[in-house]
Amino acid sequence: MSYTKTEENYLKAIYGLESKFGKSVSTNKLANKLETKASSVTDMVKKLAKKELITYKKYQGVSLTKCGKEIAINIIRNHRIWEVFLVEKLGYKWDEVHEIAEQLEHIKSEELVDRLDDFLEHPSFDPHGDPIPDKKGNIPTRKEAIQLNELAIGEEGIIVGVKNTNNEFLQYLEEMNLTLGKKIKVEKVFDFDKSKIIKTEKKKVTISKEVSSNLIIEKS
Amino acid sequence: MSYTKTEENYLKAIYGLESKFGKSVSTNKLANKLETKASSVTDMVKKLAKKELITYKKYQGVSLTKCGKEIAINIIRNHRIWEVFLVEKLGYKWDEVHEIAEQLEHIKSEELVDRLDDFLEHPSFDPHGDPIPDKKGNIPTRKEAIQLNELAIGEEGIIVGVKNTNNEFLQYLEEMNLTLGKKIKVEKVFDFDKSKIIKTEKKKVTISKEVSSNLIIEKS
DNA sequence: CAATATTTTTAGACAAGTCTAAAAATATAT
DNA sequence: ATATATTTTTAGACTTGTCTAAAAATATTG
Ligand SMILES: [Mn+2]
Ligand SMILES: [Mn+2]
Ligand SMILES: [Mn+2]
Ligand SMILES: [Mn+2]
Question: Which of A64, A89, B1, B127 has the fewest CB atoms within 10 Å around its CB?
């Protein structure tokens, strides 16, 4: 069984919203995420329900079935492996790959992504620090990952991920030298707005609460 | 300006048939090539004509405009570069890549194929010996290429291309050890059916006229 | 709890691309 | 040159995914 690009994008969006909010996904949330109208979502959601990829009760939102979830995770796997390829092999920057991966993730071939995965030597995380599901759908975890937010004065860690993968944010981080793998130390926390002074190997930077809550750190 | 996958496939098909037959392309030929119906072709052809990608006069067939030709060549460039990638980097065999390249050729990104081209070190020919157009649309040529057909007894050459890229034919060639880069010598020609005995480095094989007219050779 | 606001669904329409069946144009054969 | 065959176009319909406007259901609030 193979699905259209649109169906795959709906499933992926449902998966994302389900994970984020931990409950069934409303028509409006989905419409917003997919940049379409609620009425379009209602139509598509009926189709996916008939194919048993989601469960749907009128006015009650949707959630993925086992099968729908498998498909969603597979698309995410494709997306992230392609992102690794684009950065590692073609020299793209981390803020340039998402759009292209959105297209590449829908290429229909059982084998292609597996071969790409071999070629890339089975990466566990993508260029934004997001975990890459394996062929069976298992998603790698990091035991010790916390938000930079939760790091106290004097504590150190390594940047291993970003929560927000918005291009402008990624470019900002690049300029601040706060990219994946960088070692950082909390120098100071301003209580009134929770902004922090962060020491990296090269320089000191001040970041807002907004920024520190979007950086994933492994304590060291 | 960006075009749909369908539009791109029509342009590519028209390009192929125009090159092959050297005249304007009929509705039926196009329908046959694209595995669709003549009525569908008529509809689409009107659309492409309105966009000035082809010229079309009712009952007279179509041909590409300069702009349409540029697009077609670009898609062919994408296709062939992806085929090189699949074979050279992911270890696919030459009979396994066409289908996937049919999908990958439509990925929308000015930059992607250029970067891939750099990564592959600017190949001039794809895994089937077909020339890869450059960014500007220039298509590399081989001065000395002839059909194995035209090689007389005792003459030698190197296989540099196949005219027919049908999977079964490619698999047959693989088994006969008649793949790209192989050195061959014509040992004997049977006049009654123009079949030939060919000596490769490893063994002697007998091939039909059909086969020898589909192999491109550089004399040596 | 009733009035109001918000969310969701329905109804009907549209664009892209395709199809079948029939009509019109062109090509071929007597 | 006329009849026949083939090719091409038109007409009308279908599917997928989308939209707007209006109706129905649910949520919020005084
Ligand atoms: Mn991404
Ligand atoms: Mn990512
Ligand atoms: Mn090909
Ligand atoms: Mn090829």
Answer: B1
Is the C-beta of residue B70 closer than 7 Å to nucleic acid chain C? no
Which chain B residues touch A90 with a CB distance below 8 Å?
A: 112, 115-116, 118-119
- Which of A17-21, B11-15, B65-69, B199-203 shows the lowest per-residue confidence on average (mean pLDDT)? B199-203
Confirm if B42 and B54 have CB atoms less than 8 A apart. Answer: no
d(CA B136, CA B124): 14
- The CATH number for A9's domain is 1.10.10.10
Q: What is the mean pLDDT of residues A130-144?
A: 95
Closest chain A residue by Cα to residue B118: A90
pLDDT interval class at B220 (50, 70, 90): confident
Beta-carbon contacts of residue A150 (< 8 Å; ≥ 6 apart): none
Give how many domains chain A has, as a whole number.
Answer: 2
What pLDDT, on the 0 to 100 scale, is given for residue B16?
A: 98
pLDDT beyond 90 at B132:
yes
The answer to whether A100 contacts B91, with C-beta atoms less than 8 Å apart, is no
Instruction: Residue A31: give the domain boundaries.
Output: 5-64
CATH number (domain holding residue B151): 2.30.30.90
Q: Does the residue A99 lie in any domain?
A: no
Does residue A201 form part of some domain?
yes
pTM above 0.85, yes or no: yes
